[in-house]
Amino acid sequence: MKVKVQKLDGKASGDIELNDDVFGLEPRADILHRVVTWQLWNRRGTARPTRERSDVARTGKKWGRQKGGGTARHGDRKAPIFIGGGKAHGARKRDFDISLNKKVRALGLKMALSSKAKDGLVVVDSLELADAKTKALKAQFEKLGFGGKVLVIDGDSVNDGFRKAAGNLPGVNVLPAVGANVYDILKHDTLILTKDAVEKLEARFNG
């Protein structure tokens, strides 16, 4: 698959051949759903449990008289009615760390990239800016027609000037190639890849 490469100012910068094994697959909704669900579940923190009466460190000895005390007949300080006792019907631990086969994860990322390659993929030469300012970057995006949410993926590390300029633009996120994931790719309207990011992503699956 051949795609035109452009600079951030909109000028043409040649063509690039995309690997069909990474950018030319037919997306499957069931694979994408499994991978997105796996990613979102793993982003959740573990739900902390409360301590019930079997978890509280208090004496279990009968601490009052059976008769003559003028109170109810209690035999356990860990009972929920006492201060410091266990909680009745408390929250249970819920761990959201689910697993997913590595081949399915890789296939999901390929399909997400392929879906954007068909509609909403832009390849740029690099993220170097003549004027590394948020106002200048916003004007360039408007000139190129990038509306809605935009995800920019660079190579090993993100260009520092571009990262700072894009930091104040609403709906614009910047990631290195190693941080590319299915959920972020699919939820953005436009995907911008640098030539370095394309090489890193293709090498990620071919290595």
Automatic annotation (TrEMBL):
Alphabetized Gene3D superfamilies for the sequence: 3.40.1370.10
GO biological process, alphabetically ordered: translation
Entry GO CC: ribonucleoprotein complex; ribosome
Compositional bias ranges of the Basic and acidic residues kind: 49-58
Region: Disordered, residue numbers: 49-79
Statement: the UniProt record of this protein carries the keyword Transcription: no
Subunit structure: Part of the 50S ribosomal subunit.
Family assignment from sequence similarity: Belongs to the universal ribosomal protein uL4 family.
Name of the protein: Large ribosomal subunit protein uL4
Species of origin: Croceicoccus pelagius
